[in-house]
Amino acid sequence: MIELSKKQNVLLMHLREGKSQREIARETGVDRKTVRKYIKEYERKRMEIQQSDDPVQTGVTVK
After folding, report:
1. Which Pfam families does the protein's record reference (predicted)?
2. How many domains does the chain have?
């Protein structure tokens, strides 16, 4: 099982550094398919939050 900090590192390498899935897999030792899975999960959850009308999830302040 992968540690949370390793998963965060995978996502940060992809989002901040713009590294490819293969580069991330090589540098972290995490299988490329696992890297792809984590990126897809993150993007799916991000889209759900963006499409949500829930002000708590979207960070909108209700007055």
Report:
1. HTH_29 (PF13551)
2. 1
Is 63 a member of any domain?
Answer: no
Decide: 34 and 3 in contact? Cβ < 8 Å: no
Low-confidence ranges of the chain (pLDDT < 70): 1-2, 53-63
Q: What are phi and psi of 60, to 5 degrees?
A: -85, 135
pTM over 0.90? The answer is no
- 33 vs 36: CA distance, rounded Å: 5
Domain residues for the domain of 9 are 4-58
